[in-house]
Amino acid sequence: MAPDTGILERIATGSGKQAVHVQTKTKQAWGDSSWTDGRLLAERYREIRRFTSTLIEPLEAEDCVAQSMPDASPTKWHLGHTTWFFESFVLERFVDGYRPFHADFSFLFNSYYNSIGERVERPKRGLMTRPTLGEVLRYRAYVDEAVGALLAKPSGSVPDRIRALVEIGLHHEQQHQELLLTDVKHLFSLNPIKPAYRPEAPSPPAPLPEGEGSRTATDPGPAGWIAFDEGLRWVGHEGNEFAYDNESPRHRVFLDAFKIADRLITNREYLEFIDDRGYERPQLWLDEGWATVRAKGWQGPSYWYRTDDGWRIFTLSGLRDLEPHEPVCHVSFYEAHAFAWWTGARLPTEAEWETACGRPSPDGNFAERRRHHPVACGPAEPGAFRQALGDLWEWTQSAYRPYPGYRAAPGALGEYNGKFMCNQFVLRGGSCCTPSSHIRATYRNFFHAAARWQFTGIRLAREA
Amino acid sequence: MAPDTGILERIATGSGKQAVHVQTKTKQAWGDSSWTDGRLLAERYREIRRFTSTLIEPLEAEDCVAQSMPDASPTKWHLGHTTWFFESFVLERFVDGYRPFHADFSFLFNSYYNSIGERVERPKRGLMTRPTLGEVLRYRAYVDEAVGALLAKPSGSVPDRIRALVEIGLHHEQQHQELLLTDVKHLFSLNPIKPAYRPEAPSPPAPLPEGEGSRTATDPGPAGWIAFDEGLRWVGHEGNEFAYDNESPRHRVFLDAFKIADRLITNREYLEFIDDRGYERPQLWLDEGWATVRAKGWQGPSYWYRTDDGWRIFTLSGLRDLEPHEPVCHVSFYEAHAFAWWTGARLPTEAEWETACGRPSPDGNFAERRRHHPVACGPAEPGAFRQALGDLWEWTQSAYRPYPGYRAAPGALGEYNGKFMCNQFVLRGGSCCTPSSHIRATYRNFFHAAARWQFTGIRLAREA
Amino acid sequence: MAPDTGILERIATGSGKQAVHVQTKTKQAWGDSSWTDGRLLAERYREIRRFTSTLIEPLEAEDCVAQSMPDASPTKWHLGHTTWFFESFVLERFVDGYRPFHADFSFLFNSYYNSIGERVERPKRGLMTRPTLGEVLRYRAYVDEAVGALLAKPSGSVPDRIRALVEIGLHHEQQHQELLLTDVKHLFSLNPIKPAYRPEAPSPPAPLPEGEGSRTATDPGPAGWIAFDEGLRWVGHEGNEFAYDNESPRHRVFLDAFKIADRLITNREYLEFIDDRGYERPQLWLDEGWATVRAKGWQGPSYWYRTDDGWRIFTLSGLRDLEPHEPVCHVSFYEAHAFAWWTGARLPTEAEWETACGRPSPDGNFAERRRHHPVACGPAEPGAFRQALGDLWEWTQSAYRPYPGYRAAPGALGEYNGKFMCNQFVLRGGSCCTPSSHIRATYRNFFHAAARWQFTGIRLAREA
Amino acid sequence: MAPDTGILERIATGSGKQAVHVQTKTKQAWGDSSWTDGRLLAERYREIRRFTSTLIEPLEAEDCVAQSMPDASPTKWHLGHTTWFFESFVLERFVDGYRPFHADFSFLFNSYYNSIGERVERPKRGLMTRPTLGEVLRYRAYVDEAVGALLAKPSGSVPDRIRALVEIGLHHEQQHQELLLTDVKHLFSLNPIKPAYRPEAPSPPAPLPEGEGSRTATDPGPAGWIAFDEGLRWVGHEGNEFAYDNESPRHRVFLDAFKIADRLITNREYLEFIDDRGYERPQLWLDEGWATVRAKGWQGPSYWYRTDDGWRIFTLSGLRDLEPHEPVCHVSFYEAHAFAWWTGARLPTEAEWETACGRPSPDGNFAERRRHHPVACGPAEPGAFRQALGDLWEWTQSAYRPYPGYRAAPGALGEYNGKFMCNQFVLRGGSCCTPSSHIRATYRNFFHAAARWQFTGIRLAREA
Fold first, then answer.
1. Test the C interface: residue of B127, B139, B185, B453 with most C CBs within 10 Å
2. Strand D393-399 and strand D456-457: pairing?
3. Residues B94/C28, Cβ–Cβ less than 8 Å
4. Which residues from D are below 8 Å from A185, CB to CB?
5. Do the beta carbons of residue C323 and residue C216 sit within 8 Å?
6. Are residues A128 and A120 in contact, defined by beta-carbon separation less than 8 angstroms?
7. Around C78, how many Cα atoms within 13 Å sit in the side-chain half-sphere?
8. Helical spans, DSSP H, in D61-132
9. What is the pLDDT of residues B338-385, one digit of tens each?
10. Could you give phi then psi for residue B171, rounded to 5 degrees?
11. Going by DSSP bridges, is the β-strand pair A231-235/A251-255 parallel, antiparallel, or unpaired?
12. Could D191 and A128 be called an inter-chain contact, meaning their C-beta atoms sit closer than 8 Å?
C-alpha cells in the first residue's frame, strides 16, 4: 500500500464513521475471537505497539531522521504518525479532558488533508529534525498510557466505536511497521558504506520449520501449474473479521479456465531473463516500462549490484551474494510483466490469485520472524499453492480499481476512500516484512508500476 | 487511442502476420459486404484517402508543420505517416520492383521502432520543416497511384493478405484523420489570435435529421436511467467485420445489476459542478487528479475561457459562447470521475457501456458531417441509449487492460501488441471527429487520465 | 547578442528617448557620412531591408515557422519583429493618421514587456502558424512603403529623432539577419535529413581577395603573439558614428603587459585538444563547464559528428568533412576556456582585445559574402591582428557588465538597458553571418557561457 | 564562498604544492606574528577547533544529519570534512605510520574529485545517517590528538610546509564554521515549528562596545557618501599574512571618481522598496533576476514572513519582529541590484569597495560574538566607512573573475583553482557568522546571483 495511503487516508475523521468493513454484531468480530473485552484489546494494543519498538532497536537517532525519497518517510515520522492516529481518532474523541501531548504534533504528523497547504510537504519530512527521536518516543509513551487507561475497563465495556477505531489504528500501525522496514532499507542502500539494519538474522537462524525453505536453499525444482476450471467465483471479503473497505463488496467474477504457478519465480530464473538480454529488448516491455528502464538505467532488480564476481544484493543484513534459489525480489510491475511475457505466460489477475489462494496457511515468512528477506521455497506438494502469504507481495495484472458496488462513505470520509484507485496495480499475499496478523487472502495492496522498494516478486499464470 | 498508437504500432511488420482480428473466411468479411473485390476496395481506398485531403483544405502550409505538444503530431506528419504505412506494408512487400518515393521517408515517417534511436524523436516532429507539404502531397499521390494499380485487378483477385493490410491501413488512416483534427485544434488554441480551422460549419448548417439535436438547442431535459439486470454478458468483438485485436477475445463478464444514463452530461450540468466549487474541493477528486488540477491550474474543461460575460469556448470554428445544452467536452478522466462522484453516481465500466450500447444506430454526429463539435441531444425516447456513437468519446471507469486470453502475436508483432495497456483508461463510442465507418460498439479507445485534447465527454452510471 | 536582446529591448518606447549612444550634433553623425539626408537614409533602409529578403530566398514557407529551441526564433518572427519595430517606433509616432497593418501584430511581434503575460511566450513562437509567411511579407511591404514615404523629403528635412530611430531600427534588423541565419542552421541541424540552407556558396566561390584565406586552405602556420606594454588604455566607443549604449562611456582601463594571438584557433589545433582527452578531464574545465559537458554529453563543438571516416560538420551548405585549417567554430565559452587552459594560455579580456584590434580593416568574411562559414586564415604579417572582424565572434574572458558610469536612461528605457548584464560573457569581432556595416572594434556581443549556436571561436592571450 | 569551494577545493593534493598565497620567507609569515612556533600553532589549532565544538552545542544529533538543499551540507558533514582535511593533507603526509581513523571516511568526507563518481553525490549528503554524530566526534578527537602531537615540537621545528597546511586547514575550518551556521538556519527555517538554534543571544546581551550599534537600535540617520577621486589603485593581497590565491596578484586598477555609502542599507529603507512595489516591477530588475522573482514567488528577503501584524523574520534565535534599523539581510544579488537601481545609485565594484575599506578596524559583529545576526549601525563619523567588516557580506557588482596574471598552480592543483570563476558575484567584508580572524579587506567571497541563505546585505555606490 502506498506509504501514506494507510488507513489514515481511508478512514473518516470528524464524523466517527469509517469506511472500513467492520461488522460488530457479535463478540467474535475481532480478528482473533479470544480477545473480546477491553483487557484483551489492551493487550493486543500493547503487543503491536511493542513490536514497533523492537523494530527500531537496531537504529540510531540519526537513522530515524532521514527521508531517502518522496515515497518514503523517516522512521521518526512513522513513529509519530501512527501515534497521532490514536491521539486524534481515539483519545481526543473519547477521553474527556484529554490534553494532547504537544500542540504542534497534530500538524506535524498528519498525513490527512482537509485544507490544502497545512501539512508538512511530503518530500520535506526528512527536514524535521525536531521533535527529536526522544520526544517522539515520549509522545508514544504518553499516548500508550492514555489508551491503556481508556481500555482498562471491565470486560465488554469498551464501546464498539472505540474498539473499531483502536483496531483500525493497530492495522494502521502494522502497515507502517512494514513501511518503516522498507524505508530504512532504501535509506541504507544509498549510504556508500551500506550499513546493515540487523547484521544477521536472529541466531540461531534456523532450523526452519519443516517445509518452509532455508537460507542456503536447494533448488526448489521446476514450478508446477495448478489448474482451475472456468466459472463464476466469489471475490472479496466476507465475514466478521477485519478488512479494509477496498476488499468489499464481495462479488462474483467470471473467470475463464486458467493455470497458476505453485511458487514464486527465483533469482536463478530471473537471471536467465537478464542473460537473455531482457533489459535490452524493448519488445518485451510495456511502452512505459521500457521508457522507465531507459530513464533509470535499470539492468536488474533493485538492490542488485553487478560485480566482477557475480551479482551481489543489499539486504537488511547488509551486502551479500545473490542466492539463486531465493525468490526474485524488488522488481517493479514493469519487470514482472516483461519477465512473464518473456516466458510466454502472464501475471495472474487478482481474482485468479484469490481463487487459487483459497484459505491459506497462517504460517509463513512474516515480519515477526525477523529475517526481513524472502526464503527459498520448500518442496512441492501436488496442488499446493506455495508461498501464498509472506515472503513477497505478488504483482497481479489487475489495475487497482473499485470493486462493483464499492462506494466510499459520505462526509469527510468521502475525501479519502478510493482516491488512490488510479494508475496503480494490485499486489497480493504480504511479505517477509508484513506482520502475520495483518495479512489475509483478500488483502489488496497497491503500488505504481515503477515501484521497487517494497518486497515485491513474481508468480506466473496462463490460460488453461 | 494515443496518437501514435494507431494500427501501425499494433500490427506486425516483416512477418506478414497481423495482430488485428481479421477473419477472412468469407467474401463478406469487409466492413461493408458490398465491396468484395479489388475494385470496391480500391474505391474505398480512394474515398478514405480523399477524405484526408478534404480535411486539410482549410490549412495553410505553415499550419501543417507545427507540433503543439509531444502528444500531438504535425499535420504533415500525419499525412506522411499514413502514406508510409501503405508503402511499407503493402507496396514494398507485394509489388515487385516497387521503388520507394524517397529513401529518407521510411525513417522520417516511421513511428515503429525495432531499433532504438533511429526514429525522429517524437517531440521533435515539428522541427522537420523538410520535406515540405508539397513534397508530402506528392508522396501521397505517388503511393495512391501504386496502390490503385495493385488493386486494379479483376474481381476477387486481390489476395486476402493484401486486402487485410490495405484495410488495416485505411483504419489507420481514419484514426489519424481524427488525430489531425484534434491536433490542429490544440495548435490553433495556443495561437493568441485563435484562428478558426473552418470559420463556420458548412452552410446551410441545416435542418438536422430528426432526433439528432441542433446547434442552438433546446434543453434536452433530465437524463433518464436505463436499467439492466445482473447476469453474465458477452463482451468483445465477434463476426467477420474488421476489429482491432484489443477487442478480442470475446468473453463473458458477470455484471451486477446497473443503471446507465441515456445521454451525455451537458455544459449546463457541468457548470453546476464548477459553480459548486468542484475544482476547489480535493475530496471530490482522485489523488492524482487533484495533483493535476493544482499543477495545471485547471478551472474548467480544456478550451474554456472565463470572461466577464461568461464562459467562452474555442472550437474548430473559432471562439464562441458556451452553449449550455451541448454535451460537455474536452474533460479528462479525472474531471469525469470527479463530476460523477459529485453527483453521487459513477462512470460506467466498459462492459456496462457495451452492454447498454447494444447494436447502435450507424447515424450520428461524425467527422463527415464536418461540424467537428458535439451537438445537443435530441428528445428522449424510453429506453433509448442516446448519443451512443459519435459526438464524444465517453470515459469509462475501466483501466485499459487486455481481455482474458488476449495474447499478442509472436515475432515482430510481439513488440507492439498490448504495450500500451498500462495506466490508461478506456473510452467508448467515437466522436464528432471520428469517421463514421471507423467506429463500432466494441471499439476500445484509450488515453491517459489527464488527456483533454480529444473530444471526450461524460456519461453516468450507478448501481441498480 | 542574445536573440531577443536586440536593440528593441535596449531602446525605449513611449518616451522617444533612446539608450543608444547616438550623437547627432552634426550632419555627419551617421555611420557613413555620405548619406546625410532623407534620400540617403531611405536608400540605406531599402538596402538593408532588401538584404533580409535575399536571406530568406532559399527558405520554404515551412522553414519559416519552426522554432528549434527557446533561444532561437522562427524566421517569420524575425521578419515580423523587425518590421514591427519600424511600425511602432517610427510610423506610429511620426506619421499622422498612420493605420497599423494589423491590430494583432503589435502583440505578436513584440518582444518588449511592460506588462507581464501579454507577449507570446518566447518558447511558443513556433506555434504561431498564423499569420502566414505571405501575410508577414505583405506586412513588410506595407511598412517599407510607409517608411519610404516618410523619408522621401528634401535633403536635411528628416528630423534627428526620426533619423536616429530609423538607424537604430536598421541595426536592429541587422542583428536579426545574423540570428535568422544561426537559427535556421540550428533548425536544419536537427532535421534527420540535414537540409542545406544554400547548397553551395555562390559560384564562383572565389578567387578570394588577397590575403583573406581560402576554402580549401593551406596550413596557416603557427600563430604569432602580438605584445603590448602595460599602461592605461581607453576603451569604448567615441565619435559620432552609431554605437550601442553598452559600448559607452569611453573610459580608461589599466592593462598589465600582455600578448595576444594574431589569429584564431584552427580545427586542427582544437582536434589536438580533443585527442588529448580534453572532453574527459574535469581538471581542464570550469566547474559549471564540466557539469555542462557531462549533462549534454559534449564530445566536440556543436555541429561536429564523429564518423568512421573522421569528423564531419554541418554547415549552412550541408554536411561536409571537417577542414583542418578553418577556425574552430560553434564552441561555448566553457570550451574556449578549457581549450585555453589546456594550452597554458588564456582568453583575452575585452579591453585587451579592443586594444589589440585597434582600427581594423573593414574587409572580412561577413554575411554579404554569403559563405556563412569561417574561412582559413591568410598568411601572417608581423604584428598584424588577423581575422579581427568577421569570420567568428571571439569569446573574451570578460563577464558582460556595465562600463564605469554606464547608466540606462530613465523612463520606459529603464526597463531594458543593462538588464542582460548578468551571467553572460562578452564576444568581440563579428562573424561570417554579421553584416559588415554592423560591426566595429568596440562592439560588445554577449551570450551565456553554454551557448554554441552562434558562430563563435577562440583567440588566445597570455601574460607578457 | 560557495559551500564546497572552501580551500579544500582550491588547494592541491598529492603534490604538496598549494595555490594559496603563502609566503614563508620569514618567521613572521603567519597571520599573527606572535605564534611562530609549533606550540603557538598548536594553540591556535585547538582554539579554532574548539570554537567549532561550541557552535554545535545547541544542536541535537538529529539536527546534524539533515541537508535542507543541495547548496547546504549537514552539520555532521561539516564536522567530518574539515577533519578529513587535516587527516589527508597533514597527518597522512607527514606522520610516519599514521593510521587513518576509518577507511571509509576519506571517501565520505571528500569534496575533492579526481575521478568522477567516487564522491557521495552532493545532494545526498543528508542520507548518510552513518557514521553517527558520535563517531564523527570521535574522529575529530582522534585527529586532534594526532595533530597536537605533530605540532608539539620545540619552537621553530615545525617545517614551513606543515605549518602552511595546518594554517590553511584552519582557514578551511573557519569557512565551514560560517557555513554550518547558515546551513542550520536554513534547515530550521523549513521546520514548521521553527526551532531556535540558540534561544537568545548570550546573556547579558550587553552594553555593546562604543559605536557598534545595538539590538534595539535607534535610527542610524541617513547614510553619508564618502568620495574618492579618480586614479590608479592597487588592489589585492600583499604582505606575509595569509590570503587565498584568488586575492592575488596584487595589481593596479584605474578607477573613475566615485562615492560610496558609509553604511549598509537598513530594513526600513528596504521596506520602502517593497512598499513601492519593488517586487512587482520588472523594469527594476535584471532579466534573470526578474525571472527568479517570478519563479520563486519572492516578495521580500529570505526569512521574512508577512503577517497581519507586519513583517516577522526568522533568525538563529527564532522568529521575531522585523527591526527597522538593522541592516537588511539575506538578499540575493538580484535584489541588491534592483534595490540599488530603484534608488538611482548602484552597487560598488570590488575595487571600489576595497579602496574605500582601506585598513579596517578588526572590531565588528563577528561569529565570536554569538549574536549571529547583524546589528544596527552606530553613529556616523565623517568619512568613516562603517560596518566594513562583520555584520553582513556585501554584494558588489563585480563578477567573480581572476585577477590579471592569476594562474592556478600546475599539477593536481590545476583541477581546482579558479574553477568557480564563472557566473558568480563577489561579496566583501564578512558577516556576523564569520570568525573575526578569518576576514580581511582583500577577502573575496563569491556566490551565485540568486543565493540568499548567507548573511548578505547591500551597500550603495555612485558616480562622483
1. B127
2. parallel
3. no
4. none
5. yes
6. yes
7. 30
8. 75-86, 92-94, 105-108
9. 999 999 999 999 999 999 999 988 889 999 999 999 999 988 888 899
10. -65, -40
11. antiparallel
12. yes
Query: Any CB–CB contact under 8 A between A133 and chain D?
Result: yes
Model confidence at C451: pLDDT above 50: yes
**A191: which chain D residues are within 8 Å (Cβ-Cβ)?**
127-130
Q: Is the pLDDT of residue C124 over 60?
A: yes
The answer, yes or no, to whether residue A204 has pLDDT greater than 50, is: no
Given the C-alpha cell 463514421, which residue does it identify? Answer: B436
Q: Cell for A211? A: 517445509
d(CA B380, CA B209): 15
* 3-state DSSP assignment of residue A197: coil
**Pairwise CB contact (< 8 Å): B129 & C187:** yes
Using DSSP, state whether D57 is helix, strand or coil.
coil
CA angle, A370 then A371 then A373, to 5°: 135
In C175-303 the beta strands, taken as DSSP E runs, fall at: 225-228, 231-235, 251-255, 258-261
Q: How far apart are CA D391 and CA D327, in angstroms?
A: 8
pLDDT score for D110: 81
| Residues making up chain D, counted from first to last | 464
Pairing of strands A318-321, A310-315: antiparallel
Q: What is the mean pLDDT of chain B?
A: 86
pLDDT of residue B417: 53
Q: Is the pLDDT of residue A317 over 80?
A: yes
What is the pTM for the complete model shown? 0.91
The confidence score (pLDDT) of residue B31 equals: 42
* Reported confidence tier of residue B240, pLDDT bands at 50, 70, 90: confident
* Cα end-to-end span (Å), chain D: 31
Kindly state the DSSP code that residue B315 receives in the 8-state scheme: E
Nearest Cα residue to C195 out of B137, B110, B108, B131: B131
Instruction: Give the integer Cα–Cα distance in Å for A312 and A305.
Output: 5
- The CA distance from C251 to C247, in Å, is 10
Res. A216: pLDDT tops 60 = no
Whether D and B touch (3+ CB pairs < 8 Å), yes or no? no
Q: Do chains C and A touch (3 or more CB pairs under 8 A)?
A: no
Give the pLDDT band (50/70/90) at residue A14. very low
Phi then psi for residue B324, to 5 deg, are -65, -25
> Angle at which helices B133-151 and B38-56 pack, to 10 degrees?
170
Which pLDDT belongs to residue D205? Answer: 39
| Partners of C320 in beta bridges | C313
ipTM score: 0.89
- Alpha helices (runs of H) in D73-159, residue ranges in sequence order: 75-86, 92-94, 105-108, 133-151
Is the pLDDT reported for residue A206 higher than 60?
no
DSSP reduced 3-state for A305 = strand
For residues A338 and A342, what is the distance between their CA atoms, to the nearest angstrom? Answer: 6
User: Averaged over A79-92, what is the pLDDT?
Assistant: 94
DSSP E strands, B290-346: 304-307, 310-315, 318-321
Burial label, A28 (beta-carbon count in 10 A; 0-12, 13-18, 19+): middle
Ranges of chain D with pLDDT below 50: 1-35, 113-117, 202-208, 211-215, 411-416
Mean pLDDT of C55-62: 97
Q: Is D325 helix (H, G, I), strand (E, B) or coil?
A: coil
Residues A68/A190, Cβ–Cβ less than 8 Å: yes
Print the SS3 string covering C284-350. Answer: HCCHHHHHHHHHHCCCCCCCEEEECCEEEEEECCEEEECCCCCECCCCCHHHHHHHHHHHCCECCCH
Query: Is the model's pLDDT at B333 over the cut of 60?
Result: yes
The single residue listed with the C-alpha cell 575550518 is: D173
Give the nearest chain D residue to A60 (CA atoms): D132
For residue A83, which amino acid is it?
T
Separation between Cα atoms, residue D29 and residue D13, nearest integer Å: 22
Please report which confidence band the pLDDT of residue C407 belongs to, taking 50, 70 and 90 as the band edges: confident
